[in-house]
Amino acid sequence: MITTLAVENYRSLRRLVIEIGSLTVVTGANGSGKSNLYRALRLLSDAGRNGAVAALAREGGLESTLWAGPEQGARRGRAVQGTVRSSSVSLKLGFAGDDLGYAVDFGLPVGGEARSAFNLDPEIKSEAVWGGPILRPATLLAERHGPVARVRGDDGWEHVPYRLQAFDSVLAEVADLDLLMIRERIRSWRFYDHLRTDAEAPARMAQIGTRTPVLGHDGADLAAALQTIIEIGDADALDKAVSDAFPGSAVQVAQIGGGRLELQLRQHGLLRPLSGAELSDGTLRYLLLVAALLTPRPPALLVLNEPETSLHPDLLEPLAELVSTAAGKTQLVLVSHARPLVAALAERGASVVELVKELGETRVEGYGPLDGPAWTWPKR
Question: How many structural domains is the chain composed of?
């Protein structure tokens, strides 16, 4: 389980180190930096798939994603003026748990890259993998500086006998058991922020169905995912989640020929079930969240971004109960600005991280300069 998340110089996150629990709710006003923290987690996930450089390029390149304020941060009562940068351009991301930690440092290309067609691509300047919650020389398991990497073996340090490309992560390019463990853990992370509920959403229509223990990122395979929960997952939890939200209702999945499956919702008082095409946006979104949270194949980390979108306020309490149930099987981070949902989750034991923005910089409400978990970045 992740216990610490660290970000430096990513958009409004000039320097943020926060503690993460089994169920963590990130909240704050609009513009406080919640989405930036969510994106930072996604970038860490991309690192495990060797896609963080490409993801940064899609955001406009490193210079478009860097903290735009002064290097040392703005101070109350002082005008913010342009200054000459005294240190290297650096965007850092990292996390740690009780057993393993990982950090990566991105910078700008040097020498001759201005002529490249890929000049929006940042370079990976350094990476580190260590054992335990804090990076120390004694806990270091693998490190990379520029193109050179080394791993700690039974007989001491062993240098990787080839040079890494600036756009390739050590997690993907070096064969080592510790690197494999942390890579596969990161690759199991799951994010949901684009579940479609519009009139043309694929989840509203019959789809070819196969066993689906993991709901797709857009929810197109909702019917198959729900049927998989019914057959090999927690069908009782599914029934409870639906009846809590819609009393007297039950989900069913119809086979309509050709291997296609169709979502249906049977409601008390109606002579026939409603098809996915007839459901409201809020009802469909809730069922998508049910399928995501009750997955028979829980990830190491599940992250939801503003799941309350389109939901009626009456559905927030059932959603909180559903999230709390899911957090018993997987670590869960939920980003939300819905106060009733945040309060309901806090009552169920969630850790609440409230973000505020001061002079353009995202901070944690109530954190002083020395608060937060200990953290050390790898050197370049």
Answer: 2
Q: Is residue 340 part of a domain?
A: no
36 and 119 housed in the same domain: yes
Single out the residue of 102, 137, 109, 112 nearest to residue 124, CA to CA. Answer: 109
The answer as to whether 312 is a domain residue is no
Residue 70 phi, psi dihedral angles, 5° rounding: -60, 155
- For residue 76, the model assigns a pLDDT of 52
In whole angstroms, give the CA distance from residue 343 to residue 313.
Answer: 13
Query: pLDDT tier at 114 (50, 70, 90 boundaries)?
Result: low
Strands (E), 110-259: 123-131, 140-145, 148-153, 156-159, 190-192, 207-208, 250-255
Whether 82 shows a pLDDT value over 70: the answer reads: no
Q: Same structural domain for residues 201 and 185?
A: no
* Secondary-structure breakdown of the chain: helix, strand, coil percentages, each rounded to the nearest 5: 30, 30, 45
pLDDT for the residue 302: 98
Contact 237, 294 (CB under 8 A): yes
